[in-house]
Amino acid sequence: MDAVDTTMEKLRAQCLSRGASGIQGVARFFRRLDQDGSRSLDVGELQRGLAELGLVLDTAEMEGVCRRWDRDGSGTLDLEEFLRALRPPMSQAREAVVTAAFAKLDRSGDGVVTVDDLRGVYSGRTHPKVRSGEWTEEQVLRHFLDNFDSSEKDGQVTLAEFQDYYSGVSASMDTDEEFVAMMTSAWRL
Question: Which of 28, 78, 88, 123 is deepest in the core (most CB within 10 A)?
């Protein structure tokens, strides 16, 4: 394990010590810090942001992290790649059940879940907002899909985005058995 991996483990542990939503909270916070919408942060922005969150890295650790996720040599780190690396890895059993749930949703089999795919699996007709006339069934399905989408809500969820979402959920569950049972029940696998 190199110095940056060690730093990421340290940062991950600090995030997870905040509970199940620790990494998700950091993700939301950094997306708000990205004022220009570039989806990247420079060393100073990252250091200030982490300090504001009470997460401590020294300058050498910070520079190493930024270098690792500076994809284009611009001196900034790619925010989505950084956040993906921050999430704890899932075991093979967890990845398999997440992939099975995604496959159930991806009715077209094209590797992307859309509202059209969801229509084949779920109905939003009985949702309270549809019944009251406030939303259409399309809006309900899109709102549901947006839960799994990246920060860019484009109405299309890839397997990677779905895995990212469940990686955050997985971090809060102690055993593979517990996670697999939850997924199997939730997605009726």
Answer: 78
Q: What is the pTM of this model?
A: 0.69
Please give the structure tokens belonging to residue 37: 């919408």
Q: What is the rounded CA–CA span in Å between residue 166 and residue 180?
A: 11
Closest alpha carbon to 153 in 106, 115, 188: 115
pLDDT digits (tens, 9 = 90+) for 135-185: 999 999 999 998 887 667 788 999 988 888 888 788 778 899 999 999 999
With DSSP H G I counted as helix, E B as strand and the rest as coil, what are the percentages for the chain, rounded to 5?
A: 60, 5, 35
Q: Are 137 and 124 in contact (CB under 8 A)?
A: yes
Q: What is the pLDDT of residues 60-105, one digit of tens each?
A: 888 888 887 777 788 888 777 777 777 778 899 999 999 999 999 9
Q: Are 16 and 88 a contacting pair, CB within 8 Å? A: yes
Distance CA 130, CA 140 (A): 8
Which residues face 77 on adjacent strands? 41
